[in-house]
Design a protein that fits this description.
Blueprint lengths: L1 E3 L17 E9 L3 H13 L1 H4 L3 E9 L2 E8 L2 H12 L7 E16 L8 E9 L6 H9 L5 E7 L7 E8 L2 H16 L4 E17 L41 H22 L17 E8 L5 E8 L7 E8 L5 E7 L5 E8 L4 H5 L6 E13 L2 H5 L5 E10 L10 H9 L10 E8 L2 H9 L12 E2 L11 E7 L6 E3 L5 E6 L2 E6 L9 E6 L15 H14 L5 H9 L1
Antiparallel strand pairs: 1-5, 2-4, 2-5, 3-4, 3-9, 5-7, 6-8, 6-9, 7-8, 10-11, 12-17, 13-14, 13-18, 14-15, 15-16, 15-17, 19-20, 19-23, 21-22
Length: 566
C-alpha cells in the first residue's frame, strides 16, 4: 500500500489540505562508553509513543555504539515538538548527533508486519544541479518490490539538491538487491555530488500507528540481548515540550535597515547634478573589500551575493570567507581599530582545531559570520485556517562589526558564531575575516610581551561553543592587579555542553565591566575552581603554580597553559 502525504494519509486521518508529513531521520553515536550511552537511549525510546505528538511510524536500530532512527509525524509542528524532547534528552550527555534531517515526504510504503531480524537503511544523496531529483524520487517508489516492506522517501530539500530515504527489509541481502537493481542504476542518471550518509543497522524497536498498514500493531519488541526489557515497559505519560520562537526579529530588522539605506542612496544619486559637457568623468569610488556570501532574502531563499566591506586596517588587506566546521576552536578578542572603533580579532587558534585546519590565523578581523536562528514560518494556508505559523531554523549571515547600525555587542557576535551548532544540515560555519598584510607579526608582538604590569591591551572572552578541546573546561576571569592575579566572577553558572564528542562547561557569569578580562583554562573538570593566568610574568606564573599545587592540580599545569596560549 502506498500512502500519498498530501491526499489521504492513512485510515481515519483523511487529510484534505496540503499538509505534508515530516520524515525525521537521525543517527547518534556514543562518545566513549557504549553501555553508558545505551541505557538512557533505551529509556528515551521506551516513552516515545507517549511523548511524541502526532507520530505515525517509528523504527529504531542499533549497531554497537551507533543508533539510527526514522520517525514519521503528521505535521511539522509535531516533528518540532519531539525534536525539542530529543535535544534535551539525557542520552546526549553520553553521545552526540551525527546527522539529523526532518523533511516533508511525498510517499510512504508499509505492506507487511515486521519480522525479527529486520534491518533499517538510511540513505541520502546530494546533487550538483537543482531540481535534478524529481524523476529519481519517483522511480525509487515505482521500482520497489515485495522484499522492501517499509519505505519512505523525502521531497528534495536544501534548495532541491538533497534527497533521503529510509528502507526496511528482512535481510541485508534484500537491501543490497534493491541497491544493485534500483538505486545504483538511478544514481547514474543524476549528477551526484556526494552521499552524506549510507547506514544500515538491525532494528531493535518498531511501531506503525496506521491500522491499514498490514498486520502492524502498537507494540515494541526487543532484539538486543543487552537491552533487558527494552520497549516492554508501559510508557510514563508526560506532556510534550513545545518549541517556541524566541523574542526579537534580528534578521527582519537587518532587512528593514538595508532597505532604508538603499532608499537613501537612491535619493542621493537622483539629487546629484548632471556632469557638465566635456568634463572628465570622476574616478569611480573604491568599493572596498568584497566577498561572495549566501545571503537570505526576505522570503528566506538563498542566493550567492557579492558583499562589500570597508577596510578596518591601514595596510593592504584581503577579505576571506572561510568554512570552519563547528566547534571552531578560536579565541576571539575585542580591540580597537586604527580609528578607535571596536573590532573583533582572532586572538589565538587552537592547535589541531577546525579553525587551524581551515586556515584561520591570529590577527584576522572577524567581519561577519553565518548564524542560525529560529523563525516563525507562516504559510498562507495555515494563516487562513486560523493558525499562527510554525517555528523553523534558518541560516543567515550576521554582521560582526560592533559599530554597525544598529550596534552589536561582543556577546551577540559570540552567540551568532555558536548558533551554527543548531544547523540541522551540519554545515560548517562561514567566518568572514579581514586579513591584514602581516597579522602574525603583530600578534606575536602582543603575545610575547614580557611586561605583565599593563594588560590593558587584552580584552578576551571565551565560549566553549567556539573552542572546546577534549577534556578541558573554560571560564572567564578578570585581571584585578598588576601581578595579573585573577578573581572569580560571581555568580558563575556552568551548563553542560557536548559538541561532536567534545564535552566542556560554558561558564555564563554576570557580564562584568571590569577591564581587562582574560581567558582561563582548567585541565580537569573536577578542579574547575582553579584559575590559570594568561600571562608570561614570572611572578604571576609562580603564584599560579603555587595555587595549582594547593588545589591538587599538580605542577606544570600553568606552564603548559602559558606555552600553549600566551
Amino acid at each position: 500500500m502506498v500512502i500519498d502525504a498530501g491526499d489521504d494519509e492513512g485510515a481515519g486521518d483523511c487529510f484534505i489540505d496540503a499538509t505534508d508529513r515530516i520524515l525525521h531521520v537521525a543517527k547518534w553515536k556514543a562518545n566513549g562508553d557504549e553501555a553508558a550511552f545505551a541505557a538512557p537511549m533505551e529509556k528515551l525510546w521506551e516513552t516515545f509513543e507517549a511523548d511524541a505528538p502526532g507520530w505515525k511510524w517509528i523504527a529504531v536500530a542499533r549497531d554497537g555504539p551507533t543508533w539510527l532512527a526514522v520517525m514519521l509525524f503528521s505535521t511539522d509542528s509535531d516533528a518540532v515538538a519531539y525534536s525539542e524532547i530529543l535535544a534535551q534528552a539525557p542520552a546526549l550527555a553520553q553521545g552526540h548527533v551525527v546527522y539529523d534531517d526532518a523533511v516533508p515526504i511525498r510517499k510512504k510504503v508499509a505492506a507487511k508486519a515486521l519480522p525479527p531480524g529486520a534491518l533499517l537503511w538510511l540513505y541520502c544523496v546530494e546533487v550538483d544541479k537543482k531540481d535534478a531529483l524529481a524523476e529519481f524520487e519517483e522511480q525509487l517508489i515505482r521500482k520497489l518490490d515485495k522484499s522492501i516492506f517499509g519505505f519512505a522517501v523525502t521531497k528534495p530539500f536544501q534548495g532541491g539538491k538533497r534527497l533521503s530515504f529510509s528502507a526496511i527489509a528482512a535481510t541485508k541481502a534484500d537491501l543490497e538487491a534493491y541497491r544493485t537493481r534500483v538505486l545504483n542504476p538511478l544514481l547514474k542518471t543524476i549528477p551526484v555530488k556526494t552521499v552524506p550518509y549510507d547506514d544500515i543497522a538491525p532494528i531493535c524497536g518498531y511501531n506503525d500507528a496506521e491500522p491499514e498498514d498490514g498486520d502492524c500493531r502498537l507494540s515494541w519488541f526487543a532484539l538486543l540481548a543487552t537491552a533487558t526489557g527494552f520497549f516492554q515497559h508501559p510508557p510514563s505519560r508526560r506532556p510534550p515540550t513545545l518549541l517556541r520562537a524566541g523574542g526579537g526579529d534580528d534578521a527582519a530588522s537587518l532587512w528593514a535597515e538595508a532597505a532604508r539605506l538603499r532608499r537613501e542612496i537612491a535619493a542621493d544619486m537622483e539629487a546629484m547634478p548632471a556632469p557638465e559637457a566635456g568634463a572628465a568623468p570622476a574616478p569611480a569610488p573604491s568599493k572596498g573589500l568584497s566577498v561572495v556570501l549566501p545571503i537570505a532574502s526576505p522570503d528566506w531563499t538563498i542566493a550567492d551575493t557579492e558583499c562589500f566591506f570597508e577596510p578596518r586596517t591601514d595596510a593592504a588587506a584581503e577579505l576571506l570567507a572561510i568554512d570552519v566546521p563547528v566547534p571552531c576552536g578560536v579565541i576571539l578578542e575585542e580591540r580597537d581599530d586604527k580609528n578607535g572603533a571596536p573590532i573583533i580579532v582572532v586572538g589565538a587558534v587552537g592547535e589541531g582545531s577546525n579553525a587551524e585546519a581551515a586556515g584561520v590565523l591570529p590577527g584576522d578581523i572577524l567581519r561577519a559570520t553565518t548564524a542560525v536562528k529560529q523563525q516563525m514560518e507562516m504559510p498562507t494556508w495555515q494563516l487562513l485556517g486560523g493558525g499562527i505559523g510554525r517555528p523553523r531554523l534558518f541560516r543567515f549571515v550576521f554582521g560582526a562589526d560592533l559599530d554597525a547600525r544598529p550596534p552589536r555587542t561582543f556577546e551577540e557576535v559570540l552567540g551568532a558564531v555558536a548558533s551554527n551548532r543548531m544547523d540541522q544540515e551540519r554545515r560548517p560555519a562561514i567566518l568572514v575575516v579581514e586579513r591584514p598584510a602581516a597579522p602574525t607579526r603583530e600578534m606575536q608582538r602582543r603575545f610575547n610581551r614580557s611586561d605583565a604590569t599593563d594588560m590593558s591591551w587584552m580584552t578576551m572572552h571565551m565560549s566553549a561553543a567556539l573552542c572546546a578541546p577534549p577534556g578541558f573546561c573554560w571560564q572567564q576571569q578578570s585581571v584585578v592587579n598588576a601581578a595579573a592575579r585573577l578573581s572569580r566572577l560571581a555568580p558563575m553558572q556552568s551548563t553542560p555542553d557536548t559538541t561532536d564528542g567534545w564535552k566542556g562547561n560554558t561558564a555564563m557569569p554576570a557580564m562584568a565591566k571590569t577591564r581587562p578580562t582574560v581567558a582561563a583554562v582548567f585541565h580537569d573538570a573536577t578542579h574547575a575552581s582553579y584559575p590559570v593566568a594568561a600571562s608570561k610574568n614570572t611572578e604571576a606564573r609562580a603564584g599560579h603554580r603555587a595555587h595549582a599545587d594547593a588545589d591538587g592540580v599538580g605542577p606544570g599545569a600553568a606552564d603548559e597553559f602559558c606555552r600553549g596560549w600566551c
